[in-house]
């Protein structure tokens, strides 16, 4: 019998939608942390994606898209949601002159390499960012010198009320690690970018330098979520964390990286709860010393109110 504390059983999805049940999101996140998605699907095409969207809406179950899974921390309890990966439906990459249409699931490094092969520059900065176009349209992925994906976007294709719609660049705002697409919860299908002709050798040399710099300064061998906190107006988050002795902060196997203080890493077995504990202590110490409340750059995926560090 169903009691008030027992959630109602979840409906069966029509088999044609290809949704699987209770799929651990740790398998799909860069951080390798996260409990199950109630439903998980990789639709083969946009038509099936629209059918999944319509079914989730009819059932009043939230729909979430997962891209590279590189900018999120998923709760140990998972999410009561239909989680969709567009890697089969939106993987199209098509060049026409200096213009390129990249489907939402095209990974940024693959885009940068494909552009380089055609002697097209403009996305060199993206070579080491492990997200896809859909994710980049949410976070305005970019690097420390100010370059970001928003610089080269000509238009963005989104799914609105179950129909693909193309938004010209002028209708989209790109800010520091944020966009109006994110604020409006737009479902991104792809984007058209305008690139710039540049000798391939120059592009590849620059990408090599960028990758080498990452290798030297970031803990690339351990599961991580990139920069955990946004840089506040007062300075660089990593430097502040280092100055308050953040590199010693640990919970379970989750700990602040000894290489880069704005990275929290683990051995592959930490829980989301431990990860949050490390974040919370980092935030507490920086606030105690500088009066600055660090805001997470990574996103919390969970049901109910997020942990305090994310609020
Ligand atoms: C090692 C490492 C290095 C990193 N370096 C950088 C860096 O230099 N610069 C930088 O900007 N970021 C960096 N990041 C963070 C991250 O890679 C970027 O924020 C990236 O843009 C996130 O893309 P994603 O596809 O992984 O998004 P996900 O983590 O999969 O998703 C992030 C959010 O976007 C939403 N989303 C994803 N796809 C869609 C879609 N198609 N439509 C609607 N919503 C969608 C998700 O629902 C979620 O809310 C780094 C991360 C790691 C792990």
Radius of gyration: 20 Å
The profile of the biggest β sheet is: 5 strands, antiparallel
Strand content: 15-25%
Structurally, the number of domains stands at: 3
Structure in words:
There is one protein chain. This protein has 311 residues and is of the alpha+beta class. The chain has three domains: 15-85, Uridine Diphospho-n-acetylenolpyruvylglucosamine Reductase, domain 2 (2-Layer Sandwich); 93-216, Uridine Diphospho-n-acetylenolpyruvylglucosamine Reductase, domain 3, CATH 3.30.465.10; 219-310, UDP-N-acetylenolpyruvoylglucosamine reductase, C-terminal domain (Uridine Diphospho-n-acetylenolpyruvylglucosamine Reductase, domain 1, Alpha-Beta Complex). It is built from seven helices and 18 strands. The chain has helices at 46-59, 108-117, 133-139, 180-183, 200-217, 237-243, 272-290; strands at 20-24, 36-41, 63-66, 72-74, 79-85, 93-96, 99-103, 120-121, 153-160, 163-168, 174-175, 178-179, 187-194, 196-197, 250-251, 254-256, 264-265, 299-301. The strands form six sheets. It has a five-stranded antiparallel beta sheet with strand order 6-7-13-9-10. β9 (153-160) and β10 form a beta hairpin. The protein is globular. 44% of the residues are buried. The model has no long low-confidence stretch (mean pLDDT 96). Flavin-adenine dinucleotide (FAD) is lined by residues 30, 64-72, 86, 104, 129-132, 134-136, 138-139, 141-143, 187-188, 224-226, 299.
């Amino acid at each position: 019998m169903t009691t008030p504390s027992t959630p109602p059983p979840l409906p069966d999805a029509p088999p044609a939608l290809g949704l699987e049940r209770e799929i651990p999101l740790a398998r799909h996140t860069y951080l390798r942390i996260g409990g199950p998605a109630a439903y998980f699907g990789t639709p083969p095409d946009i038509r099936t994606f629209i059918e999944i969207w319509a079914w989730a809406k009819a059932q009043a179950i939230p729909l979430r898209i997962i891209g590279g899974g590189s900018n999120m921390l998923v709760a140990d309890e998972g999410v009561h949601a239909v989680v969709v990966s567009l890697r089969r439906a939106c993987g199209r990459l098509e060049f026409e002159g200096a213009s390129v249409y990249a489907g939402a699931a095209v990974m940024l490094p693959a885009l940068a390499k494909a552009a380089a092969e055609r002697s097209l520059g403009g996305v060199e900065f993206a070579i080491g960012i492990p997200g896809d176009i859909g994710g980049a349209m949410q976070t305005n992925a970019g690097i420390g010198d100010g370059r970001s994906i928003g610089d080269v976007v000509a238009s963005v294709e989104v799914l609105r009320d179950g129909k693909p719609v193309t938004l010209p660049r002028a209708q989209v705002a790109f800010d520091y690690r944020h966009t109006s697409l994110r604020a409006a919860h737009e479902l991104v299908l792809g984007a058209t970018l305008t690139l710039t002709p540049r000798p391939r050798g120059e592009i590849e040399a620059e990408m090599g330098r960028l990758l080498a710099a990452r290798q030297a300064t970031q803990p690339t061998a351990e599961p991580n979520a990139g920069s955990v906190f946004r840089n506040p107006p007062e300075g660089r988050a990593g430097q502040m964390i280092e100055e308050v002795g953040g590199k010693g902060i640990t919970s379970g196997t989750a700990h602040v990286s000894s290489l880069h203080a704005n990275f929290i890493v683990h051995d592959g077995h930490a829980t989301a709860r431990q990860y949050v504990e490390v974040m919370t202590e980092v935030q507490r110490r920086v606030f105690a010393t500088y009066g600055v409340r660090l805001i997470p750059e990574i996103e919390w995926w969970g049901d109910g109110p997020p942990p305090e560090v994310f609020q």
